[in-house]
Automatic annotation (TrEMBL):
Chain ranges passing through the membrane: 7-26
Gene3D superfamilies (alphabetical): Phosphatidylinositol (PI) phosphodiesterase
The keyword DNA damage appears for this protein: no
Gene Ontology molecular functions: phosphoric diester hydrolase activity
Source organism of this protein record: Staphylococcus equorum
Biological processes per GO annotation: lipid metabolic process
Protein name: Glycerophosphodiester phosphodiesterase
Length: 306
């Protein structure tokens, strides 16, 4: 009887395993449901954005940088935002102001008016080792609201930098949505963050009316499932993956991966793209968005790309 029970148990487990395998195989081979592509991506590709306004050639995140990028015919800006002491969003990357200005302390410890008094060209060094923009009248930080108003024809790719667990981090998603709506910019702003929690918060607040980019964890999940042959099981939450060309030695620019992203209606974008050959290769392989520190290179690429 014991032997018969073992045989029955073994047969049952084998059958269960077979059924499970068939179920998983069917699930992974089934055609996935793709999401719709938001209007942010409705203009002709490729998009080329100036990273922090073009930080290789002008003081980053300043009016001086954004003016220069716009003059080079850039499609838009890749920027970051942080919240000031008086709860105003400024276009700024770092936690503190020390690296890029003549001031000191955390952004959250200064009011918008105080930050606007800082010289954001103070530390910038050009390729000749000079500091040509120290004291320049346009080397100052903009609020996010000013950025939207000053450049109404530019697309804005904005990264929410404040820690989602901080008091300021909790406030940022709602405040930036208010700025976007006030400027009727829902179709020309893409909101991203390394913190997936911030993207989720923003998407709930915006009710899905503004394009969003994937956080690090979602990009990692998507790439891993693609690599393992389980790409059909991946359900994207964001509209675009914006990635470095490689991560810890892992190349993220293979034509097959880019093709998979496009097949899934996940817009493929890459940052740190600062030479023409790489621009050409990525666009040839199907990349949609490039983020560069060199708006001058972007202009040259636009003139030669066919």
């Amino acid at each position: 009887m014991t032997k018969i029970n073992k045989l029955i148990k073994g047969g049952f487990l084998s059958t269960l395993g077979l059924v499970g395998s068939v179920f998983l195989l069917t699930k992974y081979k089934a055609k996935p449901n793709n999401q719709s592509i938001p209007s942010f991506f409705s203009k002709p590709a490729p998009y080329i954005f100036a990273h922090r306004g073009g930080m290789a050639v002008r003081p980053e995140q300043t009016k001086l940088a954004f003016d220069n990028a716009a003059a080079h015919g850039i499609d838009g800006f890749e920027t970051d935002v942080r919240l000031t002491k008086d709860r105003k969003l400024i276009v700024f990357h770092d936690v503190d102001v020390d690296r890029t200005t003549n001031g000191s302390g955390k952004v959250s410890e200064h009011t918008l008016a105080e930050i606007k008094q800082l010289d954001s060209g103070y530390h910038f060094v050009d390729i000749n080792g000079h500091k040509p923009y120290r004291g320049h009248k346009d080397a100052y930080i903009l609020s996010f609201d000013e950025l939207l108003k000053l450049y109404p024809n530019q697309l804005i790719n904005v990264d929410l930098k404040d820690d989602p667990e901080s008091e300021h981090g909790h406030l940022v998603p709602e405040i930036i949505f208010e700025d976007i709506v006030a400027n009727n910019a829902q179709d020309r702003v893409l909101v991203t963050s390394f913190h997936s929690k911030q993207i989720e918060r923003f998407n709930i607040i915006s009710n899905g009316t503004v394009a969003i980019g994937a956080g690090q964890s979602e990009v990692a999940e998507g790439f891993l499932k693609f690599y393992l042959g389980l790409g059909n099981s991946f359900q994207p939450r964001a509209h675009t993956f914006q990635m470095p060309v490689s991560f810890k030695g892992i190349k993220l620019t293979s034509p097959r991966f880019i093709q998979w992203l496009n097949t899934r209606d996940i817009i493929p974008g890459y940052y740190g793209v600062n030479n023409l050959d790489l621009m050409n290769d990525l666009i040839f392989n199907g990349a949609h968005t490039l983020v560069t520190d060199r708006p001058d290179l972007a202009e040259r690429f636009k003139h030669t790309y066919h």
